[in-house]
Amino acid sequence: MPRTPHASPQTLRLFEALMKDPSTWRYGYDLSRETGLASGTLYPILMRLTEQALLEAGWEPSDQPGRPPRHTYRLTGDGIALAKVRIADAMARSSAKRAAGVSIVRPA
Amino acid sequence: MRRTAYRVLLLAVRGRRERGGPWGEAVLAEFDHVTSTGAALRWASGGLRVAFRERYSSHPARYRLAAMALATLAAVPFLVTVHYVPSHGMEPTIAVTSRHVLDQVAFRVTGIDHGDIVAFPVPDGPDDFQTLRRVIGLPGDRIECSEGRVLRDGAALDEPYLPSDAQVIGTECAAVTVPDGAIYVLGDNRDVAQDSRHWGVISENKVTGRVIV
Predict the structure, then answer these.
(1) Residue B206 contacts by C-beta under 8 Å, 6 or more apart in sequence?
(2) I need a labelling partner for B213 at 20 to 30 A (CA). Which of B1, B2, B52, B141 fits?
(3) What ipTM score was computed for the predicted complex, to two decimals?
(4) How far is A98 from chain B, CA to nearest CA, in Å?
(5) What is the CATH number of the domain that holds A89?
């Protein structure tokens, strides 16, 4: 069976963070702190999502002068639709598991 | 510490260029906002991964080649080794003090064949004292000597690799049938070599390698 794309627990955590307010532009470091994902995990996901036009990225001049512009991200329309599907799937799966008497422990 | 991490990340992202790829630059730009030193180190180490990935996707063939070369370099010491020859036992085929490359893995897959030159620890010596001998008999073979020639299952072997004097003097041995899991080995220099004529058969799992060159 082929693997479902963008369904890993890490991608899911990113989706949840981005879906809190889909219209705002988010910084990479803030997303990293919110999801608990290391930069080496987070950015490859962001790269993949951007390549497939699920995420849009932009540059925003820094608020302090002399600092480099920051890269910002938000989900595209397609991205929002996919994130909703993936989050719903994950919730359905976890409730099915709970019904089957298996407790899942999610790493902090 | 923080400065060093930043420098390393900068080097990985930009190299000698004025500006790196957008994703590497994105990680760099966030670096200033990372609060603690520990977090900054983690951020930079993840950033190395990002920079590598970004470069990899622009030149996949080059990186795949480099990865393959690296994997080969790492595997070679397990696959082959160099054996220094300390004895005259295999002359003239293998000169004393010469060095030979031994395959340590492939022979376990393909099996040992008649005529192969294999390495194993000398039965009456220390474990790390290895020697090379030619495989004459495999499990099931009946090895005997008659009129100076070695017979395998009753047929005399053609042994062009023997030194000329040994061809004249000949080989003497006690008849033996090689049991399962063992091999019968002889040195090419029959006059001086210690081999299965003295040690008896060698256990197959004692063999550590087979001469390639």
Answers:
(1) B120, B121, B123
(2) B141
(3) 0.81
(4) 34
(5) 1.10.10.10
